[in-house]
Structure formats: C-alpha cells, structure tokens
Amino acid sequence: MAQNEFAIIQQYFADVGKPGDNTVLAIGDDAAVVEVPPGFQQVVSMDTLIEGAHFTLDTNPEDIAHKALAVNLSDLAAMAAAPNWFLMSLSLPEVDEQWLQRFSTGLKHTAERYSVQLIGGDTCRSKLSISIQIAGLVPSGQYVSRAGASPGDLVLVSGLLGNAGLGLASRQGRVELPEGLRLRCLQALDRPQPRLELVAFLRSFASAAIDISDGLQGDLAHILKASQCGATLDRSSLPVDPWIVQQDLYHYALAAGDDYEICCTVPPQYRAEIDAWNQQHEDCRLTIIGEITSSGFYLKVGDDQIDLASKGGYRHFD
Q1: What domain count does the chain have?
Q2: Which of 153, 168, 226, 246 is positioned for an S-S bond with 292, CB 3.0–4.6 A?
Q3: Stretch 107-123: mean pLDDT, rounded?
Q4: Are 251 and 210 members of one domain?
Q5: Is this prediction's pTM over 0.85?
Q6: Residue 275 is inside which H or E element, if any?
Q7: Would you state the pLDDT for residue 312?
Q8: What pLDDT is stored for residue 311 in this prediction?
Q9: Is the pLDDT of residue 222 over 50?
C-alpha cells in the first residue's frame, strides 16, 4: 500500500507514457534530462486544475486525469507543436488507493494516445489539484503565435463551440438539456479533445492561433491585441449545436469557455486548403466565422453589430 509520496510515484506514475527518443533521464532522479534535436525549438506550457474551480469531487478520476493532460496538449496544438514530455505536480488531501489507481489509469491512456511521457514531478498533501507542465517540439521558426494576424485574414474555429459550457451549466442545475445533448455536453466538458491533428495545417497555413479555454470572444481578443488589429464575426456562422440556435443561447459559444477548440487566422488565398481539410477531417471541421480587420471587434447579428471590445472571457479573479 502506497503510504508516502515516493511510494505513490513509484506505484502509480513511474511508467506513464512511452519513453521518447529525446528523453535521456526520466523519473527517479533529482531532475529529468531531455535533449532538443537539432533544427527544432521546444514549446513549453503549464496549466493547473483545482477541485472546486475546474472539477467537482464526484468527477470520475479518469476524466480528471484526461482533462489535466488534454488542456496542456491543447496549448501545444495551438502553437503547432508536437508533444514530447510532461511534468506533473499532484496535491492530494489523503491517500485514496482506489482514486489514485483510476487517476493513473486515465493518465496513462491519454499519455499513450498522444505519445507523450511523464518524466518527473512532485506529490504533496493539500487540497486536490493537478498542475502539469508540458513540452513539445516544432521545427525552428515554424511555431504559430498569437501575433501574426493581418487585415483580410479569415477567422476560423475547429469543431463545435458552447457544448462544454452547457455541460457545466447542466451539471450545476442552471440549464435543462435534452438527454442526448446533455450527455454530449458532459463529454465535451470532461473529455476535451486536443486538436493535435491540426498541427501540420497550422504550420503550413495559419498566421495566428490560440486554443479556446476561456471563451471565443476573450481568447480571440488575445490574438487581436497581439496582432494589433480587429475582427468582425458573424453570429450565424458560429458552429454550434442546433439547440443553442433554437434557444438563442449564443453566449455559451462566445463566453463560457472550456471548449479547447482552436481559433486561428488564415490568409484568404488558402480557402481551397481549408476546403480540402474539411473534406478529409469531418470530426475536426474548420468553420470560417469572420474576418480580421484593421480595428474594432464586432459581432454581426442580422443587420446589427454588437461591440465585443469590452467583453472578455472567463477570468479567475473577476
């Protein structure tokens, strides 16, 4: 039975993910050692999930593990980087053998699915939280940042928007959904899919990109600020479930967050490449929702325009 942090690491986390070609020394020493291959740059990100803020105690441990890793993988996807390794700091209020077994099983499945290895980390006693630092590789100079958008570029998003926000609202009793939609929305909330399949497309065609963690309007605003430009979106073009349209609840698509889809900008000469992508990737379709402009941030609703410049996404300290 695992009683201390060293035993926990050895029993549950010593073999998460397959060793990568660039890992020199993984779990078991004071620090890990990795190499960056010639001609590549390393992309690094970190996210924390905290009980009560990002998930409830009754959430399946497998889902918590998946989401903790998936949201970090989503950051790499937005930067057009392929995952390589990750570190994890796990805080636990107590040693629950059954919970740890389920959590580690979920973490292993997700790590193996996306070919990324856990190479180190830490455990301690505290309120339940999971912090993951992840690293990926991108050919030198081919990363995609938030700062490259230009007027005339198309604004695109992957997948559907708003389902995760609806899932959270349903779980909290704030909205009643049809059963089939409720299950899909809870799946979107608990099991976000990092869009790593988009990495090659983004490297080739995107001028800027970001993953949608805090809501489309707030995250796209980061691209606009970094690129020093504006945008106009068309609400009727937003890829959402028909129920959102019927109920006129577009704010879930615009501001609820937790979608972990990719928002990117693409020069208009690549429309044919967008169409080709969509023909081959039905599960990760790219939808054109607007255009980059020289200034301002607006949402077209019929003949009206709503100013989004003063509206943000989710913020922890608001």
Answers
A1: 2
A2: 153
A3: 93
A4: yes
A5: yes
A6: helix 271-280
A7: 55
A8: 67
A9: yes
At 230, which helix (H) or strand (E)? Answer: strand 230-234
Residues 95, 110: Cα–Cα separation, whole Å:
23
Q: DSSP assignment, residue 14?
A: T
In order of 155, 163, 311, the CA distances from 208 in angstroms are: 10, 24, 21
Q: Is 102 exposed, middle or buried (0-12, 13-18, 19+ CB in 10 A)?
A: middle
What are the backbone dihedrals phi and psi of residue 3, each rounded to the nearest 5 degrees, phi first? -115, -25
- What are the percentages of helix, strand and coil residues in the chain, rounded to 5? 35, 25, 35
User: What residues contact 113, with CB distance under 8 A and at least 6 apart?
Assistant: none
Rg over CA atoms, the chain: 20
In the numeric block, the tokens 């929305």 are attached to 185
User: Would you tell me how many other CB atoms lie within 10 Å of the CB of residue 210?
Assistant: 25
Q: Which two tokens stand for residue 314?
A: 């989710």
- Both tokens of 150, joined, read 């230009």
Q: Which domain holds residue 173?
A: 154-307
> What percentage of the chain carries pLDDT values higher than 70?
96
* 298 and 175 inside one domain: yes
Last residue of a domain, one of 87, 111, 139: 139
Higher pLDDT, 68 or 311: 68
294 and 162 housed in the same domain: yes
Q: Supply the DSSP string of 137-192, one letter for each residue.
A: EEETT----SS---TTPEEEEES-SSHHHHHHHHHTTS----HHHHHHHHHHHHS-
In a domain, 313, yes or no: no
